[in-house]
């Protein structure tokens, strides 16, 4: 039965290959040339039967092409299956020291030296380039899947065998003793600063995987902002009823922390007033100086501390006005954006001034009720110098850069959803809003418009969004 069905399988594969090739060739034909090409094909099909033995010759040629394509496709499929089996065998052998260390009283167990992966790997998938895209495996019940260190060791082995240049999502099903590994697709890149279509009190922090959110916003990206696409956003909501009224952005130097702060400022200036404090003193917010809606741009210990002292007094004034029922005296929403507060505090202490983190405590704890939103950007090594109110009140968190899993978990309050990689582009990281899940994040490209080292299209886009002087 199997031998008699083999020619049929060859013909079926050949026909499928021939139809696929015809579709691909037709898709490459420009739209303006499709009508003439279609007429030529139809005319040829009508003329061939009129020729002597034309139908027989055409049918024989078609059958020969189908058989050749079917045989080649079968050989290629067999080679791909052999390559996939060899790769799965390597992964199986690499997992034996971790899943086969404890004796199984019921027998030799799922994982043993020289064993087979067929009884352990429940499903697998490979991409067009032959690389592993998905793997679902069963593991022994004695494996301590509740131990983060044990999980991390297994995840490290799988990442090493599947390729460290990609990110992976691991789903541990402790009830069924199953582990699923999925290679994550690249995040939407090439999206710069622009007017995002969002509601009142909503700010786009960046973009994430399509399967994570059920919302899309139209954005322009690519060269010269020529492509219009629908991208899945990570939306942060602020206001008196927001559960995450303040934001903390952490990352390594050059990871895009300041770029995200600029993006947030540009969106906030569409409707609210913003005060900017550059703790690093690098003039990163110089493009906002003197603009409509900008309460001030301060840098250095002197101006920065004075600005934060004013913010604390303004928050208390708003609280007092709200307590007396004078809602009109409270005023509009105020955003306080501070870059490198730890460095600002260090410089202030050297100058004999007060600690800026203490000045931030009032707006952090009580600012939500009176429309004061605090956004902080800090390097990872400086987080330890921030006050307790920062971590207690900034329930919206972002981590950018190639950060170790334990570092990201310390900031986000939960482990990241993907495996860390050795290098990531600027603005790439993870975000978590409140007690929600950790999601991957790619922030909009928002360079300093005065930075001549940045690409011209991105700088022009930022300049177009700046309020007038």
Oligomer kind: single chain
State the helicity in percent bands: 40-55%
Instruction: Give a count of the beta strands, DSSP E runs of length 2 or more.
Output: 16
Overall spatial form: globular
Features:
single chain; 469 residues; alpha/beta; four-stranded antiparallel sheet
3D structure, described in words:
This protein is 40% helix and 20% strand. An 8-stranded mixed β-sheet has the order 11-10-12-13-9-14-15-16, with helices on both faces. A 4-stranded antiparallel β-sheet has the order 1-2-4-3. Strand 6 and strand 7 form a beta hairpin. The chain has 469 residues and is of the alpha/beta class. The radius of gyration is 30 Å and the shape is globular. Helix 1 crosses helix 3 (54-99), helix 3 runs antiparallel to helix 4 (148-162) and helix 6 (300-323) packs across helix 8 (341-350). The chain has helices at residues 2-28, 31-47, 54-99, 148-162, 257-268, 300-323, 327-330, 341-350, 356-359, 361-366, 388-393, 405-412, 456-465; strands at 121-126, 132-138, 168-173, 178-183, 202-207, 217-221, 227-231, 233-237, 247-251, 273-278, 294-299, 334-339, 372-379, 396-400, 428-433, 439-442.
Furnish the topology, listing elements before pairings.
Layout: H1 2-28, H2 31-47, H3 54-99, E1 121-126, E2 132-138, H4 148-162, E3 168-173, E4 178-183, E5 202-207, E6 217-221, E7 227-231, E8 233-237, E9 247-251, H5 257-268, E10 273-278, E11 294-299, H6 300-323, H7 327-330, E12 334-339, H8 341-350, H9 356-359, H10 361-366, E13 372-379, H11 388-393, E14 396-400, H12 405-412, E15 428-433, E16 439-442, H13 456-465
Parallel strand pairs: 9-13, 9-14, 10-11, 10-12, 12-13
Antiparallel strand pairs: 1-2, 2-4, 3-4, 5-8, 6-7, 14-15, 15-16
Helix pairs in contact: 1-3, 3-4, 6-8
